[in-house]
Amino acid sequence: MWNFIMKELLQPIKKTIFLSFMISLIFSCSLFGQKQASNWYFGNLAGIHFNDDGTVTVLENGQINTFEGCTSISDKEGNLLFYTDGEIVYNKDHNQMQNGDGLFGDSSSTQTAIIVPKPKDPNIFYIFTVDHNNAVDPTLHQGLNYSIADMSANNGLGAITSKNINLLEYCSEKIAAVVKNCLDKSLWVITLSTETGVIGSINTYHAFEINQNGVNINSVTSASNLELTWGGDLRGYLKISSDGKKVASANAGPDGGLYLYDFDVDTGKLSNELELQLNDSNHWAYGLEFSPNNKFLYAHSWIDGAESHLLQYDLTASDISNSAVVLDEREIYRGALQLGPNNKIYRTISIDYDNGTPYLGVINNPDEKGLSSNYEHNAIFLNGRNGTQGLPPFIQSFFEKATLIKNSENIGVSFLDICSGENLTIGIESYEGATYRWKKDEVALDYTGNTFTLNNIGIEDSGKYTLDILFSDPFKCDIFGEAVIEVLESPTDEAFTLTQCDTENPLDGIATFNLEDTFHTSGIAYLLYETENDRNNNNAIDVSVPYSNTVAFNQTLYYTAINENGCENYGVLNLEVLESPTDETFTLTQTQCDTENPSAGIVTFNLEDAFSTSGIVYSLYETENDRNNNNAIDVSVPYSNTVAFNQTLYYTAINENGCENYGLVNLIVNPTPAPVFDFSKTLIFCNDDSPIELFAPDNYHTYSWSTINGAEINEIGTNPNIYISEIGDYRIEVGYGYTNNGQQFFCTSFQDFTVLPSGKAVIENIEIEYGGSSQNTLSVIVSGDGNYEYSVDDFIYQQSPEFTNLSSGNITVYVKDLNGCGIVSQEIAIIGFPRFFTPNNDSYNDTWNVIGISNNNLPNSIIYVFDKYGNPIVQIDPLGNGWDGNFNGRPLPSDDYWYRAILEDGRRLSGHFTLKR
Length: 917
Hints:
Mean pLDDT: 86
Largest sheet: 6 strands, mixed
Shape: elongated
Radius of gyration: 63 Å
Low-confidence stretches: 1-32
Structural class: mainly beta
Number of strands: 69
Strand content: over 45%
């Protein structure tokens, strides 16, 4: 059994679902075939044709060009006979019918014409026309007229044999027709006019009977409370329900309104006038139409410069006026509404009076209430030809059909959407003496009863079903029934299984399920229930909160599946709880002597072999965020911890069930000794000093001092310090001691160093190159194991042993060992000879003597002075005052004189100088 689903649960619901039933109604008749309204021509050369399957084909051969009024007629097989705009009649070849011009309709009249066949004469048709409202000159108004078309003339193309026979001098722009009696095939043609049909207030409906004798020129009148004055807007549609029981009248303009009447087809009288309020009091009604089941009235209201409204009135409501529902509102102009042979209502869409659009709107399900009627704007494209304001009216009885199905509100409907898999009975009440002829899509069915049942209905059962009920009693009218059925695909009743890993307590079989995201079938909504009884009582599980199974390891839930068609089906959901890995915390301890980054706490771990639990695959992550984003560590390469000494990694463990759990891995790094210590890799031993004492860094567990001789390493000490008195290559090794799994081990680091010899320099010689009193050069020759630098003032030292531009005199030379083994010095004299002297007793340069000789430096040197001729003048004591420029008590003249020096060290020097006076 189908459950009805509220719109709040699934939007939009395509259709409610129906139970099988039979319908019992009273029908007036089926006077004509069902295809006389198959061809429509309207607007600016626009047209459509209704196919047997209910689809529409756009026509492009129409000839009329009208602002509003138009009409057409086809034979009982749906073949076009002729059409007109109320002024010119076009035959089936789309040429002007013989004598088919000058009719007194008007293309600016709302319902310019309607075509009515003469009862019991297949060749004669009456064309009733109404002129437009000439507000300027009423005398130009042509009123209600009819013309006669004989289809036997002109080789079946027809001819107008009588034209513009006047029935009323003045009337509105509205006209409608309905069958009066199916036995004699008489009809009513109705219009709104003045009481007498001459100029005056428009307040009376006139019904003219057409029977086998022709048109009865004496109308049946029905008074109205309307008081429309001539010159007012007399536009607007007049429509009769297909069962002939209701009349609706739209009177556009401020003094008009929308009115509903009861109609008596036997007498032609209208009664029980009811004014219907429009959704907007400023709006004027124009287009009108009844639903196929005659339960609803549709109206198109508008006002210039504002939005148009498409309204639905419920004729079964206690307050019809307040039952109005706005189906569509948009800024368009007034437009017609017309029921089609396929039981859909079509709407013209105009921009303004002069301009239409190449589209028709469609009310797809006019038998349904409110928005379920499914109005579709711009539904039919007219291939570039514009519809304007009007659509062709027809004898409304063309659309009278017995309803073979009802909707959920027990209202007979023409269309039914039903879900596949259901059972459906189609039919009507049984009539005594009746014959029942069924067709599906115009193909006869092998059923002869008043009903038939489709069991387990499928997509192939979609289609149009028709029923002809033929009576043997000649005084009973035949009945025609129709139902269009669309079978909608239902969801499958698939059994689903949802597995969930037990991460909370891997052994109790209870887990938390996210039922909200369980099903992912597009377009299907699922309701879940713990028991079948809950499903029958619609006591659904609240899937917006996590659900914990109430039966360990395996539990069955029940579901209802509802698809986009509004169809539902039932099935089961099996909940299965799988065992998960435990969330154990692991600790990996890695001890390594880190020679690359001593004591930084960063080492390399082999994570690939860290876990060995059978049947479980582990993935490792540096952070929880990485785990959430599945950014795993590549364990195939060595991993260096990023947090010194202690770091926590996060893992996901997945077992053979595909279940996962989470845990921690603690990485622990033991400190390692530093491979670089506080002393240099090269040390110096002064060969004239005591042994050197070396100290290793503190706080290590082990120390080892060794000598290195090629590949031979010999330990010479195990204390933190050691004395070394020999040069050579050495090693210091330190270590930390650890216990791992009960075994003690040491992690060590070592550093090699070299002890090199050094000592004070030995000054072997000091060489002097004389260049004058201040341009002398000195070179120091030394020997020794050290590296030395030199100075002549013990303040500024230099790498070079050579000094230039030295002045004559006593100088001390210093040699310093760069390795700190000491400084040696030696005093020397740089012998110098003045270039001139001036013996004038001014206390400056009054005497001449050698420079640089002292008691400590060459005191026994001998100095001689000669004149330029080589004659000896004086021997000078180098430690005395020197020569005063006299010879034998007499001053010698200014001139150059020569000297010869025999130094104590054996050197012999000579040169000349000037005596100036």
